[in-house]
Every structure is written in structure tokens, then in C-alpha cells.
Amino acid sequence: MKAPFERIVSRHGATVLRVCTFVLGRIDAEDAWSETFLAALRAYPELSDDANVEAWLVTIAHRKSVDIIRRRQRDAIAVSELPDRPSPIGVPGEADDELTEAVKTLPPKQRQAVAYHYLVGLPYAEIAEIIGGSTAAARKAASDGIATLRTKYPDALTKGEHR
């Protein structure tokens, strides 16, 4: 029997927000989080009882984040200053700011592979399904991302939380 959807949001909300934050940045992460759970709510009744809910939500969050990136590219509006509206739920703390900034400099596939594997703990096979490509490619992207972070930002990795 499936858990009530409210319990799913409580249990995985912070993880989804962290993933959205690392993929999009703080400003758009809350929108992606909301869109993820709206889509998940609609699809939840059809989800099999033995499904990996966390991986399912990360997949939806990935797609919603990509949608926001595409929308941002289409609807770019020049402004002098963007507001910063961080949410305290699941957002990396100030101690993680250096790590967050370092991860944001990685190419998209590396950034996603690092976030999904080291922040969420997904296996490479599931990451490959989310971002496309093979399990080996997902492992390589994460490995290359971590190698880049260790080389360019050694202090960020020692201060940040990664598994």
C-alpha cells in the first residue's frame, strides 16, 4: 500500500529541493520544487507500489529543472538585480555556499551526475535513466565532476557534505 502523498512530500521534499538548487540555483529551485510535486501528485495514483519514490521524484525534478532552464533561455529578460529568495527547507546552508558555487561551474551533465549521486545517493544506473546515456557515462560524468572540483576547488570539498 502506498503512503499518503503528504508523507512523500515530507520525506523527500528536502532532497528534491537540494537537487533543484544544485541544478538551477536558489532563485528557480522553489519553482522547480513546486512543479515537481504538482506533477508527482497527478501521477502518484498510477505509480506502482514497489517503485523507488525518491528516484521517481528526482527524475521529475530533473525534467522540471530542464523545462525551467529552457524557459529561462526563451524568456530572458535583462534586469539590473535579481532578488534572492532562499527557502530554509533543504537548501544547502552557508557552510555549503562554496561547494554550491563550485558545483554550479561544472558542465550540466557533470553537475547533475554529482548532485544526483553525491547529494541524493542515487546509483549510476538510475542517474543514466534521468540524464540520458549509459551507466558508464553517468559514472564518468560524476567522476570527472569530482576530479574537477578536487583540482579547482579543494577547499569546497573539504567543507561541503558529500557522500
Topology overview:
Layout (H helix, E strand, L loop, with lengths): L4 H20 L1 H18 L9 H22 L22 H8 L3 H13 L3 H8 L3 H18 L1 H6 L4
The structural class is mainly alpha
Q: What is the CATH class designation of the largest domain? A: Mainly Alpha
Query: What is the domain tally?
Result: 2
Which word captures the global form? Answer: globular
- In sequence order, what are the helices and strands, one letter per element? HHHHHHHH
Number of helices: 8
Q: pLDDT average, as an integer?
A: 82
The biggest sheet, with number of strands, parallel, antiparallel or mixed sense and barrel status, is:
none
CATH homologous superfamily assignment of the largest domain: RNA polymerase sigma factor, region 2, helix turn helix motif
Total DSSP E strands: 0
Rg from alpha-carbon coordinates: 16 Å
Can you tell me the CATH topology of the largest domain?
Rna Polymerase Sigma Factor, Chain: A
Strand content: under 5%
Domain RNA polymerase sigma factor 70 region 4 type: 97-145
Family: Belongs to the sigma-70 factor family. ECF subfamily.
InterPro entries: RNA_pol_sigma-70-like, RNA_pol_sigma-70_dom, RNA_pol_sigma70_r2, RNA_pol_sigma70_r4_t2, RNA_pol_sigma_r2, RNA_pol_sigma_r3/r4-like, WH-like_DNA-bd_sf
GO molecular function: DNA binding; sigma factor activity
